[in-house]
Amino acid sequence: MNGSSERTAINVVDLFCGGGGITCGFELHAGKLQFCTVLGVDNNPAAIRIFNANFSPRAPAVLPTGRLADLTWFTHPAEIRLFYLVHCAFSRPDDELKSALERLAILDFLRDIRLCDSRFCGFTTFYPPRVPERGGVSSGRSTHTGVASGHHE
């Protein structure tokens, strides 16, 4: 820190977020560091509902901050990173991140995985997240599973 009064923002992912106890602590922190919870993850639907009621996004968002997911759905660390990146691209929305993912053809890859799951496995993963046509938080299911997973909400 250089002694200025500017606050440094740090993005936080709250794993096993429950109703948001840790996120609440980050939100109340008044020091030079500002913590911004960009993703809360829990495998309990009731906890995610409470988390999202307690911590609505600061700016208009397409997806809620809290997401239903079970970390056992992910078989490789890259899947967790992909979950995070896709969430960030669609939750804010972040056009620069979306464009970067599109240049890598990630979104096409995820759509193809969904089709393969549906055709050959009898289930679908939820990649990319289901996004409403225009603004607002989707009232539908907006979670997704790991690429190699057959788990559903």
Strand order of the largest sheet: 1-2-3
What's the number of helices? 5
Query: Helical content, roughly?
Result: 25-40%
Domains, number: 1
Strands, count: 3
Strand/helix succession: EHEHEHHH
Structural class: alpha/beta
DSSP strand content: 5-15%
- Distance N to C terminus: 43 Å
Q: What does the radius of gyration come to? A: 16 Å
Q: Please tell me what the overall shape is.
A: globular
Segments where pLDDT lies below 50 for 5+ residues? 130-153
- How much is the average pLDDT? 76
Biggest pleated sheet? 3 strands, parallel
Give your account of this protein's structure.
- The chain has 153 residues and is of the alpha/beta class.
- The protein has helices spanning 21-28, 45-54, 77-91, 95-103, 106-121; strands spanning 8-15, 33-42, 66-68.
- It has one domain (8-121).
- Strands 1-2-3 form a three-stranded parallel β-sheet, with helices on both faces.
- It is globular, with a radius of gyration of 16 Å.
Helices and strands in order:
Layout: E1 8-15, H1 21-28, E2 33-42, H2 45-54, E3 66-68, H3 77-91, H4 95-103, H5 106-121
Helix pairs in contact: 3-4
